[in-house]
């Protein structure tokens, strides 16, 4: 990823392009399905401060191989460089995109799918607690008292019962 903030303005398009690199997306103009007819001499003359290796690696090289996945050529792809007409043999201009294209979005969704939405968890069932505590005496009689009432109660048989 290359963000040169000293020599050019950092734009939304540049940030989106560099995030594309973070997601392992290649330059669109280097796609196997690219239709650009490069005027390599014109590019080399205009970018003479760059090495031929740099130009090959960043402009002219077409990615190939069984692991390369790509869409149809999309000139609006955020991974596309701006290419002036004088750099192409057919004088075709390609503008540097500043927003994600529909193909960008669908390809990213295909490569990085969202997990399926989680089903909402039902709320826990409310358990209704009785408001009174039933206490059994040894004689079989039952006394009722509020839960928070923790004193000894006396049964009819005169036995003391504690909750």
Essential attributes:
single chain; alpha+beta; two-stranded antiparallel sheet; 23% helix; rod-shaped
Outline of the structure:
The protein is α+β, with helices and mostly antiparallel strands and about 160 residues long.
Question: What does this molecule look like?
Answer:
By secondary structure, the chain is of the alpha+beta class. It is built from four helices and four strands, in the order ααααββββ. It has helices at 12-22, 40-46, 52-60, 102-111; strands at residues 132-136, 142-146, 153-154, 160-161. The strands form two sheets. Strands 1-2 form a two-stranded antiparallel sheet. It has a two-stranded antiparallel sheet with strand order 3-4. It is rod-shaped. The two termini are 72 Å apart. The model has no long low-confidence stretch (mean pLDDT 83).
Class inferred from helices and paired strands: alpha+beta
Strand content: 5-15%
Trace the largest sheet across and list its strands.
1-2
The N- to C-terminal Cα distance equals 72 Å
Average the pLDDT over all residues and give the rounded result. 83
Helix content: 10-25%
How many individual helices? 4
Largest sheet: 2 strands, antiparallel
Order of helices and strands: HHHHEEEE
Total count of strands: 4
Global geometry: rod-shaped
Unreliable sequence segments: none
Rg calculated over all Cα atoms: 37 Å
Lay out the secondary structure.
Blueprint: H1 12-22, H2 40-46, H3 52-60, H4 102-111, E1 132-136, E2 142-146, E3 153-154, E4 160-161
Antiparallel strand pairs: 1-2, 3-4
């Amino acid at each position: 990823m290359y963000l040169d903030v000293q020599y050019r303005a950092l734009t939304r398009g540049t940030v989106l392009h560099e995030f594309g690199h973070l997601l392992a997306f290649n330059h669109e103009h280097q796609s196997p399905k690219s239709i650009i007819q490069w005027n390599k001499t014109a590019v080399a003359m205009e970018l003479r401060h760059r090495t031929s290796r740099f130009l090959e690696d960043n402009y002219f090289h077409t990615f190939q191989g069984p692991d390369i996945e790509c869409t149809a050529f999309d000139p609006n792809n955020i991974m596309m460089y701006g290419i002036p007409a004088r750099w192409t043999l057919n004088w075709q201009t390609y503008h540097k995109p500043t927003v994600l294209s529909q193909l960008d979005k669908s390809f990213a969704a295909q490569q990085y799918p969202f997990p399926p939405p989680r089903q909402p968890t039902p709320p826990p069932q409310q358990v209704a607690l009785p408001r009174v505590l039933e206490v059994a005496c040894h004689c079989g009689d039952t006394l009722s008292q509020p839960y928070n009432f923790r004193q000894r109660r006396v049964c009819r048989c005169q036995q003391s019962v504690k909750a």
